[in-house]
Amino acid sequence: VEIQRIVKEYSLVKTFSFHDKLCEKAAPGQFIMVWVPGVDEVPMSLSAIKDNYCSFTVAKVGETTKALHMMKEGDLIGVRGPFGNGFSYMKGDVLIVGGGTGLSPLAFLAENLSKFGANVTFLLGAKTRCELLFLDRVTKVSADVATTTDDGSFGLKGLVTEYAEKMLAENRFDMVYACGP
């Protein structure tokens, strides 16, 4: 497939968008295999499907993802999938907890859950404010959004899992979804 759009989320993370009829039918939590010609193939969670664009968000951490980050709009990548079962949807009060690029499938999930009729509380975590992904997206579809950063540069200082423990001790949720470090 041809890379249609590339969005730089921050220095080490980019979102790549493309068109693919099979991937357009994917559910949040499913993944694809992305092949960078001449390098290797890596699994990637889908971070969005909107307006016939399928997207995945990737951090530059290894040889294949570094090669992917050097690609430009119009370049070709291989895509297989989607694979996996995806998340099961639950109505009622749901808590979504994620950090880092683990937020990719969860932002996609929150958007779908809000259409499904769930009341979504979303806890987002990152190391720093500049590494906090998809805050605008989840704010549009979640009843309550809280953020944490390891260094305290935005939201609460500390790990998102620490705040999740507090939320779970004080509130009742019908389902908890999580992904990330």
List keywords for this structure.
181 residues; alpha/beta; 4 helices; 6-stranded antiparallel beta sheet
Tell me briefly what this model is:
By secondary structure, this protein is an alpha/beta fold.
List the helices and strands and how they pair.
Blueprint: E1 5-10, E2 13-18, E3 31-36, E4 40-50, E5 53-59, H1 63-69, E6 78-83, E7 92-99, H2 103-116, E8 118-126, H3 135-141, E9 144-149, E10 156-157, H4 160-170, E11 175-179
Parallel strand pairs: 7-8, 7-11, 8-9, 9-10
Antiparallel strand pairs: 1-2, 2-5, 3-4, 3-6, 4-5
Helix pairs in contact: 2-3
Task: Give your account of this protein's structure.
With about 180 residues, the chain is an alpha/beta fold. The protein is built from four helices and eleven strands, in the order E-E-E-E-E-H-E-E-H-E-H-E-E-H-E. A six-stranded antiparallel sheet has the order 1-2-5-4-3-6. Strands 10-9-8-7-11 form a five-stranded parallel sheet, with helices on both faces. Helix 2 (about 105-115) runs parallel beside helix 3. The longest helix is centred in the middle third of the chain and has 14 residues, at about 105-115. About 35% of the residues are buried. The mean pLDDT is about 95.
